[in-house]
Amino acid sequence: MNARSVPFLSSAFSLALAIGLLSQPAPAPTPSLTLLSKEGRRPLPIVMVGDQEFVGLDDLAAAFQLAVHEESFGALTVSYKGKTIVLTPDQTLASVSGRLISLPAPPARRGARWLVPLEFISRALAPIYDVRLELRKPSHLLLVGDVRAPYVTVRYDPLGNAGRLTIDATPRATSTVSQEGEHITIKFDADALDIANPPLAPQGAQSLVQTVRAADATTLVVDLGPRFAGFKAAAQPVDTTMRLVIDVVAAQTETTPAPPPAPSADLPGTPAPAELPPALNPPAFAIRTITVDPGHGGDDEGVKGAAGAKEKDLTLSVARRVKAAIEGRLGIRVLLTRDEDRNVPIDERTAIANNNKADLFISVHLNGSMRRSTSGASIFCAAFDDEAHAAAASSGAERLPTFGGGLRDIELVPWDLAQTRHIAQSTAFAAILEQQLRGHVPLAETPIDHAPLRVLESSNMPAVLVELGYLTNTDQEKLITGDAFQSAFVQAVYDAVVRFRDTLGPGGTP
Amino acid sequence: MTMRRALALACAVLLAVVFVWTARSLPRWRSTTQAVAAPSPTAPAPPGRKIKARLFYVSESGMKLTGVERDVAYAENATEQAREIVTAQVGRVAEPLVSAVPPGTTLRALFLTDNGQAFVDLSREVAAAHLGGTVNELLTVYTIVNAVTANLPAITSVQVLVDGKEVDTLAGHVDLRRPLAKNLAWVQ
Q1: Fewest C-beta in 10 Å: which of A124, A186, A187, A320?
Q2: Would an 8 Å CB–CB cutoff place A298 in contact with chain B?
Q3: What is the tens place of the pLDDT at every residue in A208-231?
Q4: How close A294 comes to chain B (CA, Å)?
Q5: More confident residue, B138 or B9
Q6: Residues in chain A closer than 8 A to B135 (CB atoms)
Q7: ipTM, 2 decimals?
Q8: What is the pLDDT of residue A92?
Q9: Of A178, A186, A177, A265, whose CA–CA distance to A219 is shortest?
Q10: What's the rounded Cα separation, in Å, for the pair A163 and A174?
Q11: What is the C-alpha separation between A467 and A380, in angstroms, rounded?
């Protein structure tokens, strides 16, 4: 797509592109959405209404040259070059050039201002705007026009006298790696980077890699520790990602001279010593899509706590946070089976995962007990009896004709037994998730169990159901509704996904 | 003659209604000879005679069931005995016992098939009054399944029905579309 001039961005912002870095904003009392185009970047204030992020219609109108009218019959019309969006207060449905779309929340009035959910931009405005609009909600980023801003994630795995930095850029962006004194500089061929701030948590004074920081909009700098002796860099495309792997090594003894600094060039460096495993962390991007299923919803409220917390609300809130963390930091697509308060049939939940060929299914729930003191998180995998396993095994394949002639074997598995083929991987993911939860979230006596759970049985991919804790326990209700618990849980799921991904080969098999 | 025809027609209609009801509400039930939907007036148990049955209640931890031996009325045949056991199981209990079956739940009907399956039809309260939660629902389901299968070895699996119909789940978690086998892993 050709870059087009976007009227709202004045030349005053052009300078900002050179020095600005697109990053997740540090916690601030008033978060903002960063609008980025070829011409520059500009903040758009975000207003919280409940747990939803909204933007002012007046701000959008100023930024995108929209005309907003409040009609006498109560509707709001938003016009752009002859195309119209019709919003109705108290309604989550909107008409976009005659087509209905849904929003996670209805428009809200604050004084004389009208606010709309952030999703208004991607679902209502983008279809009628004549320049590409890409909303990256987890990063609070709105790309306007043809802007290359890959998601970049950085991971460091120390291993004795060596270590490996793995830097994924999605969609693919090439980079140039060079060493300058005690720093390795990585310059990306992009307009900006969509990356967490800081990209990597500080690793400690003795680590070969101490920090990774953003030097400017498209450059990362790796600060090296005193033991650093050399590095070797290699880039490899993995699916839609460009994975850059930098192996760093420490000096063996004090008498061993450090290798000379590598000259600035495309992916050069001193050769890594033989002690570094050739495939310390082989590229494995077998997880492309994850489905997160917020349990219950609508008139099915699930378990209710004594203080009023409802399972359906907590599962949705936590699922949204899991989605934001994984999409924003790993670049893996995360689909929610519901993103609003509605009752979704169980088969529809698994259909969303199956039809989108998700690589992992995580159903989020809260537990209940007739005993008020029962507490702790637990993870469930599906369970099938021998008869079901036999039925799944005997389903076999069917030879069907294909277009253009010929025959093709199609493997047939009954919908209700789809999970039978993934039990081992589901159990493996459950074990990894338990490891990540342990120490951060109170666990039940038996943290992993197998049971004939309806939502797992039809999932045609590794699938688990996670119970965060017991809402019938007043102490647990207080804990689970708190930010600290939810943050710890989300981080554990994130870490589990990363580790599970690393156990899979490129084809998705262990 | 007219009277006879009317009687024959009434019998045919009655048979058809019974057939349709059975086919719709119990699609898995086939040619059983032991169906009993209500207390049989022809085979009353001798008054006062009891058996010891193992019934199941929520453990102290709340995460398992615990087996408790209780007196249950003796019945002459397996179907009647299963009915007595389930009726005792879903009935009210006093502290310190805590039942995983929601209060108000009653047994509507119970059928056994020739191949060792039991269909236990419970009143709507078992779902409508359910507290929710995966573990809680598992304990409710396996309370019923284990109460029947642990006390009547000829019965190998149980399908729970609600208000005369097959249901997906009681509270959104446990798959009830198929009969479930005894599972003492949920008993501590």
Answers
A1: A187
A2: no
A3: 898 999 888 899 999 998 888 888
A4: 12
A5: B138
A6: 367-369, 374, 378, 467
A7: 0.77
A8: 79
A9: A186
A10: 22
A11: 8
